[in-house]
Amino acid sequence: MSGDGATDGLTRRTQNSSRELLAKAFFFGCAALSVATTLSIIGLLVYEAAKFFTISAPLLGIDGPTATLTEFFTGSEWGLQGPNLGVMPLVAVTLMVTIGSGLIAIPLGVATALYLSEYASERARSYLKPALEILAGVPSIIYGIFAVAYITPVLDTLFGVDGLFNVASACIVVGIMILPMVASVSEDAMQAVPDDLRQAGYGMGATKYDVSTGIVVPAAASGIFSSFILALSRAIGETMAVTLAGGSLARSFDPTSLASYLSLFDPDSYLEPGMTMTAAMIQLLTGDVTGGGLAYRSLFAVGLVLFVITLGMNVLSDVIARRYQEDYQ
Amino acid sequence: MSGSYDGFGRVSRRIGKLFRGVLFASTLAGILTLAVLLVYVANDAFQPLTADPGWHLVFLLTLVVPTLATGWLSYRRSYGTLATGLLGIVMPGIAALYAGGLAALFIDVIPTLVWLSFVIALAIPAGVIVALRRTDRSVPFLAELSAVLGVTVGSLLVVPGLVQGLPTVPADWMVLVLTLGLPEAFLLGRWIEGRWGRRDGWIAGAAILVGSAVGGVVGMVSGFGAVPGVALTLFALVPTGLYAAIVVRERPDRRIGLLLPAVIVVGMVAGELLVGALGFAGPESWVDWSFLTSTTQSGDPRSVGIYSGIVGTILLMFVVAAIAVPAGVGAAVYLEEYAPNTRFTRIIDVNISNLAGVPSVVYGLLGLGLFVRYGGQPTGTLLVGGATLALLVFPIVIISAREAIRAVPDSARQASYGMGATRWQTVKNVVLPRAFPGILTGTILALSRAIGETAPLLVIGAAQVFGVPDSWTSTIGAMPLQLYVWASTYASPAFYTTVLAAGIVVLLTAMLSMNSIAIYVRNHYEQR
What is the pLDDT of residue A74? Predict the structure, then answer.
């Protein structure tokens, strides 16, 4: 930061020349553009989604089909023919992908972070870390093709699945995609644990295993936990891999019955196709979305739900990382 | 740590070893899964098992064995020798890739005459700027600015029309020699002059210019094409030659490393000749010339090609870089060099990290609403797609540029201010030049993220079936979009393990080439 007094003093005489002002205005405009982007995302999503709901659409002059809030949040079917405009069936499959990918990425990610932070030599780290970054760098469309072309056949031999599409293959590829995020954020948190604590542990006669599980992991818990939330929010926003792998067949899901929630944890239901929120958005694009019709408006309604969930999780992860961080200074 | 005293003093190595093994296996699990998947993709794309055993044997003897032997010899001398050799084969490969992309642009997208007219139109204001710099600095800034802006606008309005109305026009390849070869010869000549002396600089400059013309003629005569000939000469042969010359002249201890690329090239040519002579059939690879250059869209896997996707991706990356890099670096400069420590600055700070976490499909919605529905743009054009992807990578560019700027030592700034420099002069002359490698690395990595993005392009309505774009307003394709079209429209096993595998190879090659450039830039400047 160059906001210090000495620099201000040294540049005071020149700071109001037209060249300086022009440069500053340009840089400020660029920074303000980032705020403008956020505001446009929020404004646009809210405004267009408002045209989708019966409660607000007449105010904006929309007289096409709309959805009541009850229908949107408690309806058990999704589909523009009908139209059945319940978003919960899509949220449910998104939740399944989040659970499934979390089951893969969280244990593997924490173990990876622990290995890299506590056990790996400097040389091993220099090879393993870029290799892990590659996992996150492969485009999601490629993961989608992997899921359909290579992982589904394996699942078919093991468990027997019908057709090309199922939720399980989506969970596997998304799990691989978000693994580096769990690993790198957790590892940063583990590296931030001061060495004094480890040395104290060794001084007490603890083994490396004791120190890793008994000192490092608890001390880094807030960072590890925030990495889970961050990675899961990435899984929720993931689009192309789940669109290709899960197929585009909306399931029915009754948000008012307990049994349907239990089915989210039923392994068999993972072997069937399912459409997430993001996949539904891609499917809506096959309709006409430029004219502002029902497809366009429901696109933004689903998009708003997605945005609110991911933003909420990102903020939550930030809060956890900050508030519960142990301060060793 | 159990809190009980029973276990004290009894230490089992077994648990520790087991735990370590489990952690190591978990670390490798993801990497190995991806590696296995990539092996499957490579196998499906190149079909190496369909080749004659004789074909494999010939290439084993002419290419693989000599390469491994030379590589081992280089490594025995020193690790640096091997690295020199590897760079000598990787760099020309990547350079040829990009030269090919550039040639594709000039053949199919940009009419060379239009290109020439705009280069001339922009050369005039550049000349004015240079002339103003040469005069004494008594010109007031605002007068200077308005003069430059006036000349730029005027020349852009007048000159292109004049040039395009000329009765006789030079051939395509001559335009390239003039507009690309001449500046390259001048810049590299100046650079070599500073390095090895005036005479060598002149020789190199002349050689580059003549070489590019010869490349055009050879390309025309051989049927390879004049434009690709010039492009390959300028952007693949010249850098390769320069690299070899630098190694030979300045690193005599590593000279032997250049044997590796030589052995590989000779081995490939010899293997190709032998295979042809002996009549061994090669593999029925899906990544072949017709796949790379065909624009056909149909249900027949053998006839389709990815060409329009490649051209679309190149054009999109230009637009993304042109928008996201100045804006992102500008925002980073503001936050690091200008921003007072106020509430607004902190809001921007939090806002950027949250923007980086917004799902890419939501950026597509932003582009759809902002540019298409309310901006009045047609769906799926180059500008809309590029602007949408630029917004997507904007926070990534800001974050990496801030890191690079923060790494510039404060003493450099203080020295500049102490000499009486203004803020803008300090940013321009001290901060940005020193942060440049870091900014470049971050930019390339951000672009390699944008290259694989599919969902935003789908949402803004990029065409599902598309050709090579011929204007700013024609709908554009991209490599990942092409993959999605094949995967969804022609969803059959016949497509998944054939054309899609080949498409994955092409897309990953483009990404890896960008990433390796970024890594090279980072390592090169870290050593300083």
Answer: 87
